[in-house]
Design a protein that fits this description.
This protein has 13 helices and eleven strands. It is an alpha/beta fold and 300 residues long. 44% of the residues lie in helices and 16% in strands. A seven-stranded mixed sheet has the order 7-6-5-8-9-11-10. The protein has a domain of 172 residues: Rossmann fold. It binds S-adenosylmethionine. The site of S-adenosylmethionine has 24 residues, from α7 and β6.
Length: 300
């Protein structure tokens, strides 16, 4: 049934009702969650459409030449590593690229031979599954809350926040100008500017924003993009400014792991309390592994 026939059918149902019951039906239609399954499907479709738009604006590596340090760090990995952006390429998408020969799961051990070994993969974005898990299972109801994504890159966390939460203000802070322009293009095209703001800045210039945030999200922000002394400086700044009592901090990986190799003294037990998460909602192998990296803390 197309839209016009469905609309006609609904109006006929209303017209055929006992007049006294019509207000009750209209109230139910305005307030019920019975339609959620249809609207949430629609949200998935919009996010997939955003990912498709972004895929067309980027090379398959989803990295850009101005990311000098990130590209260098990728080449320095001990095992051959490929960047596959999990927001842009879900498993089906990745498989179809492999079939077309545009990507590979393996690398050649002896160039030209059939001896191959699996590549390591890194994603610099959350996948759609991770974004949904974040907003539907990790975070509480965000009605009226301010969310800050530190290092927003392609905007997966911002767009997810728009469609899967009721946060009133969603800020992305990204130091790379080209990625900010891409996020802005999406915000403009999908008319998301009532709740999303993209700031092209180093997070260390954004003290008031961090101080006011109810939720701060940090997905692998610094490790691949800054040298160790810069990472330490940024973490110190985060520690000094994410201080709103009761606010929430989401990190990937855990704070302990992020800070373990840096020369920075942050007494975690005086700053945050870890909140255990239940990963049982997703029992699948790969997804589960990625989800288990997500950690939630409450600021003391
Ligand atoms: C791994 S990506 C995270 C992407 C996004 N938050 C997500 O989860 O999909 C990290 C991003 O942080 C940015 N970044 C690194 N250090 C930063 C800083 N000091 N200030 C702002 N952005 C930074 C990088 O340019 C990179 O795009």
């Amino acid at each position: 049934m197309d839209f016009s026939s469905a609309r006609h059918a609904i109006l006929n149902v209303v017209k055929g009702m006992r007049a006294g019951d019509v207000p009750q039906l209209l109230h139910w239609m305005k307030t019920t969650s019975d339609f959620d399954e249809f609207t949430s499907n629609n949200k998935d479709i919009i996010l997939r459409s955003i990912a498709e738009d972004l895929r067309h604006s980027l090379p398959t590596t989803a990295m850009i030449s101005s990311e000098h340090l990130a590209l260098q760090k990728l080449h320095e990995q001990t095992k051959p590593t490929l960047h596959v952006d999990a927001f842009l390429y879900d498993d089906d998408c990745f498989d179809s690229l492999c079939e077309k020969g545009e990507m590979s799961r393996n690398y050649c051990l002896t160039c030209g031979s059939h001896r191959t070994a699996p590549l390591e993969f890194i994603s610099h974005s959350f996948s759609l599954t991770e974004v949904k898990f974040l907003y539907e299972h990790v975070l509480p109801d965000l009605t009226g809350k301010v969310v800050v994504d530190v290092g927003s890159r392609l905007g997966a966390v911002l767009f997810g926040g728009y469609f899967y939460s009721s946060a009133s203000e969603i800020y992305g802070v990204e130091m790379n100008t080209e990625f900010c322009q891409l996020q802005e293009t999406v915000v403009e095209k999908y008319q998301l500017f009532d709740r999303i703001k993209v700031l092209n800045a180093d997070i260390c210039t954004q003290a008031p924003l961090l101080k006011n945030a109810d939720v701060v999200i940090m997905n692998n922000v610094f490790e691949y993009f800054l040298d160790r002394s810069e990472q330490a400086r940024c973490w110190k700044f985060i520690n000094e400014n994410v201080r709103k009592k009761g606010s929430l901090l989401v990190t990937v990986p855990s704070l302990e792991k992020s800070l373990s190799e840096l020369q920075v003294d942050i007494p975690l037990n005086q700053w945050v309390e870890a909140i255990p998460l239940h990963y049982d909602v997703f029992l699948e192998g790969n997804d589960r592994e990625a989800l288990e990296e997500i950690c939630l803390y409450r600021i003391l």
